[in-house]
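Q: Could you write out the predicted structure for this multi-component system? I'm mainly interested in how the pieces pack against one another.
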Amino acid sequence: MRGNVTDGPVLKPVRKERVSRQVFDQLKEQIVKGQWPAGTKLPSENELAKQLNVSRVSVRSALQMLAALGLLETRHGEGTYVRELSGDLYLNALFPLLALSKTNIFDVLEYRRVMDPGAVVLATERAEAEDLAELERIYHRMEVDKENYKAFAHADLEFHLCIAKATKNPIFIKVNTIIRDILNASMEGIVRALGIRDGLHYHRQILQALQDRDPSRAERLMREHVDRTIQRLREEGGEKVGGEA
Amino acid sequence: MRGNVTDGPVLKPVRKERVSRQVFDQLKEQIVKGQWPAGTKLPSENELAKQLNVSRVSVRSALQMLAALGLLETRHGEGTYVRELSGDLYLNALFPLLALSKTNIFDVLEYRRVMDPGAVVLATERAEAEDLAELERIYHRMEVDKENYKAFAHADLEFHLCIAKATKNPIFIKVNTIIRDILNASMEGIVRALGIRDGLHYHRQILQALQDRDPSRAERLMREHVDRTIQRLREEGGEKVGGEA
DNA sequence: CATGGATAGTTGTATGATAACTCACATGTT
DNA sequence: AACATGTGAGTTATCATACAACTATCCATG
């Protein structure tokens, strides 16, 4: 048939943008364009809903997405604030890439083997009293939870994350946070396979080196620690530990 | 006063985790552990609310956050699905809109200072012929684009990413990919500030070390390279480099 | 067989109410 | 005056319910 209407692609699909999405975009604009610099307290949800002429549900929806992306921070009973725009924000994109792909445990440990010794060196220079106190708290929790593999594994990951935090470098912190989240699933199996002796030993020594502000010793210990973990896991046959999928 | 209660920090703050956060964590676990592989259709919001014994609002809150992070995709009137991992980053909507501050750039470079020497060591062991060929291609492009700062900066970042690729470790690759995107905006300014001599010099030497399969030399050169970049940038006063937004 | 429409299931939005939390101010006690 | 305590307003978090908007499927009708 000639002149069929399907020939010409004239009609475009109508614009049907969700309300929450529109709110999201508007708020994002304000932040990114710098109208609302870091630290700004946003109008209350009720206020925003009134100004935008939408329900509070839609406002909350947009706010929560922005908070998930790291642009906003909501404080219960206090308000919603604009966060500092920094490089670690983009690292959020790393999370799904690692979470959704079947990441090999040895790949993660190999990465740790490079990053954690470097991190601990920076930590010996920059750790504040509260960082060291936190590390001690975590270490003691590991001693207490000797029998509870799940709790022990969790504390182990927290220990490494805490060292990253002590570097005061948001990139170290963010990446380590993501790695902790990913590893959380398999860490219990690793602890169960390797036992707790090595972990306790090295963590205590590393903590000591941090307290003594001895970077080279801390670095050496951390490298040994990760190396030994990798080596022993290889011997055990690491196929079993990761596999709950 | 003796026996003051404030002496002993015995009482710990009670656990007060938000409902939506708990839902978020549970759903995240399912995805990360692989219980719900990509493409899986989640139970309906009502169903989840009933199973978890929370309101639909809390479920939606968690789902929307996961969707914002890119782990889920909600289709109006159809359902919610675990997202297929599609290489490219969806967070890119925000990328061009942010100019990094001076501190951010140094944070990134500090991270590089640890990561890249470690990566290049692995690369000397694992780089295949095509990796080395690619590196040579990139290096030659740098020589050609001596005058074009933008192209030169781009090639510089590609060089580092290519080394990461040669490690065959997906974590190195993905982190380096994101860092490349972060630096892309500011890199031209950096090159303009520091010139191209150092870059060409070190990249050529590192390439040579890789071809010779000399890990310790490659590591030393890479560390020197990043160190020198940081140092010279400090001297220049890096305030200027970030600004295009 | 093709068309169109009814239908059930799902996500999106609206409304109103209540709980939980934070801060600042007022109040009372020493 | 100094400190502890209570009280209230403002804000976010959660709940329950209803309805709107959208999608896929099935089915009757021509």
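A: Regarding packing and overall arrangement: DSSP finds nine helices and two strands in chain B.
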